[in-house]
Amino acid sequence: MILCLLATSEDFLPTGPADSYLKVLKQTKAIGVAMVLNLGLSMKGCQVEVPMTMANAVKTENFRANSQLVAHAFSIFNLPYIEAASMSNYNKIELEILLMKGDSIPKEVAKKLTENKAKCPDTTHHLRHQLNNWYGILQICFGKEALITKEARAWIGHVDKFELSYDAQFKMDTEFGAKVLGLIDLTFFQFCDSCLKADSLEEVGSIALDNDRYNITRNTFQACVPAYLAIQQKWKAEDDLEDSEDKTKKRCHKLLKEKEEKDKFQIKDLGNMVKNPNPVAEWKVEGKKYKKTFTKDVMTNTPAFNETGLVTCNKWHVQDYCFEKCERKATHKPFVSATHRSAYDKWVKEQKAKNP
Predict the structure, then answer these.
(1) At what angle are helices 90-99 and 30-43 packed, to 10 degrees?
(2) How far, in Å, CA of 50 to CA of 259, rounded?
(3) Sequential DSSP letters for 79-90
(4) Between the CA of residue 327 and those of 101, 182, 219, 271, 333, what are the distances in Å?
(5) What are phi and psi of 183, to 5 degrees?
(6) Residues 6+ apart with CB under 8 A from 93
(7) 54: three-class secondary structure by DSSP
């Protein structure tokens, strides 16, 4: 199959792989393949980061997908345009592998190595870059003169010549980029399948996408999003719906909680302020020190005012004032029971001693 892919015309077949591909095959590890590919692509003006999955596919000559319903590593979708600031350092990844202890690969490294970079372009600029990245990888694997490589070059030239038509398509159809790449991916799959089954060069199918490019300029382009992307989009839509429902539930819960807190701390009408005419000087604590000393936890241990168990109003006896509608209004007077007064006196002085 690889020799058929190297065909430079309908009647000429090279005797062996391209020199650039032989350099790749000399690498013993997939990460070495990825580094060589990235270096070669950068020299061809490509701004891309070849994922390890694609590097492994290149090394093992695994260019043909098993099915059109399954995403394949060697795909134009796996070569999106990447901003330089977002690109990884492959030297760092290699160092992590070399320095690891034992035979097992750390989970975070393994995850990084098995990730695809599949992405669909949403602008003409990104589409052009992705096509150029695809052109670059085809040059390295099959040579500049291979039929499949020339086809990629034809797409780039068409985008450059009819950029306005592509811009219009993107404005009319948000999935236009996915459809164009899907068509290219399908054509490559069919070409590989034809090469695999052919016994001679004459049996290899042709690549004919000129009419599809022409339809873009006529505004009559029609293609489908690849099945594996459509499935992913369905899953994503379902996940987004679930996320949306979860967000709604969380927001409702938050609003109810805020309402409960608001009701809890709603300012009550306590009436007019009333001064304590007979304050005990030894108990007095003012302002911020009162809040610091008599916290919520401390207040729960306030001694009783009398034999009935009525809790003493600390504000009245310690701050020398309170309000007309206080729930403990009955304690707004001097202690009658010497025993309860003594207990309260001891308790107040203990709290004051903790925060002198």
Answers:
(1) 170
(2) 53
(3) -----GGG---H
(4) 69, 75, 79, 12, 14
(5) -65, -40
(6) 31, 109, 112, 113
(7) helix
CB atoms within 10 A of CB 154: 16
In this predicted model, which residue has the larger pLDDT, 182 or 2? 182
Q: Which amino acid is present at 225? A: V
Return the bridge partners of 322, or none. Answer: 274
Cα separation values, 29 from 33, 35, 38, 57, Å: 7, 10, 14, 12
Identify the CA nearest to 217 among candidates 280, 281, 147, 159.
159
Taking the C-alpha atoms of residue 18 and residue 15, their distance in angstroms, rounded to an integer, is: 9
- What amino acid is encoded at 101 in this protein? K
User: 33-66, pLDDT tens digit by residue?
Assistant: 888 898 899 898 888 888 888 888 899 888 888 8
Which stretch of DSSP H or E encloses residue 321?
strand 321-323
Contact 7, 147 (CB under 8 A): yes
Contacts of 311 (CB under 8 A, 6+ apart): 302, 303, 304, 305, 328, 331
One-letter amino acid for residue 165 of the chain? S
Q: Over the stretch 214-236, which tens digit does the pLDDT of each residue have?
A: 999 999 999 988 877 765 554 44
> 128: which 2 tokens?
């052009």
Q: What is the dihedral of CA 209, 213, 214, 219, to 10 degrees?
A: 130
